[in-house]
Amino acid sequence: MLHLARFTLALAVLAIGACTPPRSIHSLVTDETRHFDSRLVGEWTAKDGDKTFTADVTADGDGYRVLFGYTDSTPGDTPNESALLLYGELTQIGGELMADLTIHPEALSKFEYADMVVPTHFFVAIEFRDDNRVACRPFYPTDMDAFEESVSPPFLKRPEQPKRKRSWVSEPILLTHPSNALRLQMKRWLAEPGHLTEESMEFRRVSAPH
């Protein structure tokens, strides 16, 4: 289905570091709103056809170290594998448990010009179906053009491009709200339909917590 295809591609491009969902230069999490749930620690996997996603999650201070992997074994195509090391934190926004994910400092430190890089954050709604199943829905507005128009200009930046209809695989929207303002805006967005992917992807535990 279309929405699952969008979800799959969202995770795939995240895995190779070319993510197109809206990103933020500030975290959705504050010291007062940070939440830790030990149930998230462990090794997880999800499948969609010939595509396999893995997440090796360990505790990292008040957050999580997430080694996210992606493999595409579509028959007839060259197998495609990639991995991305992320740092994640949890927070409650309205009725949603949201994961805030960004590149892990360990991975960032390997960049030659790391001191010139500003990491960005992307967001995923998390639902524990039981201790061994987690459903994930990225913050990924269905209509990116309408979403862009709904964001006040002081809080939105994106690369200049020729005037044309935005497609959902074009340049990413970059949000610049400070964390507290971002939380208020996110609560409004999550109260409206069409800001999370309609279908979730279920990750199943493949090993006990480390």
Question: What's the short version?
Answer:
With 210 residues, the chain is of the alpha+beta class. It is built from 4 helices and 12 strands, in the order H-E-E-E-E-E-E-E-H-E-E-H-E-E-H-E. The strands form 2 sheets. Strands 3-4-5-6-7-8-9-12 form an 8-stranded antiparallel beta barrel.
Walk me through the structure.
The structure is a single chain. The protein has 210 residues and is an alpha+beta fold. The protein has one domain (2-207). Helix content is 18%, strand content 38%. It is built from four helices and twelve strands; from the N terminus they run H-E-E-E-E-E-E-E-H-E-E-H-E-E-H-E. The strands form two sheets. Strands 3-4-5-6-7-8-9-12 form an eight-stranded antiparallel β-barrel. A three-stranded mixed sheet has the order 1-11-10, with no helix packed on it. It is globular and about 45 Å long.
